[in-house]
Amino acid sequence: MFVVGREQQQVFAHRCVLACRCQAFRGMLGQAPVGSQDSSSSVPPQGPFILGNVQPEVFLAVIEFLYTNSVTLNSHIALEVLTSSVEYGLQDLCKLCVKFIKDTLSVEQVCEALQVRVTLEGSPRVKNNL
After folding, report:
1. Left if phi > 0, otherwise alpha if psi is -120 to 50, otherwise beta: which for 31?
2. 36-89 pLDDT, tens per residue?
């Protein structure tokens, strides 16, 4: 279980799905990689995991992607989902966000999109996706 955002919304997800699909969650959830020698002896930490700096709608989009390999985006969350995709090392989600942003970018969002790009450009996880 995750407790997300200032609203402290509870989000439930399967530990095995998150750990299999995302290295960052694998580390957060304390699971050793499949086939490793410590996988049977390590005891993963129990939740809830507190994520106070992420909007619930953004976190739910990341979870949706991890479960379905697709995501439902809107202009209100796309840039934040992009930021989360970089944080969690989810390159395919990053590409989906960039495509959505390119296809729907409006004059009102240009400054915010530019600021996100500048911020993420220095990230070692961002290659040529932006």
Report:
1. beta
2. 454 444 545 667 889 889 999 999 999 999 999 999 999 889 999 999 999 999
- Helices and strands of the chain, counted as H and E runs: 6, 3
Nearest by Cα to 60 from 24, 119, 12, 17:
12
User: Does domain 2-31+46-120 sit in CATH 3.90.79.10?
Assistant: no
Close Cβ partners of 65 (under 8 Å, ≥ 6 residues apart): 71, 85, 90, 92, 93, 96
Longest dimension (CA), the chain: 54
Residue whose token pair is 């700096």: 53
Tokens in use for 14? 């399967």
- Give residue limits of the domains in the chain: 2-31+46-120
Question: Looking at residue 45, what is its pLDDT?
Answer: 62
pTM: 0.75
Which residues share a beta bridge with 10? 3
| Separation CA 89–CA 83 (nearest Å) | 10
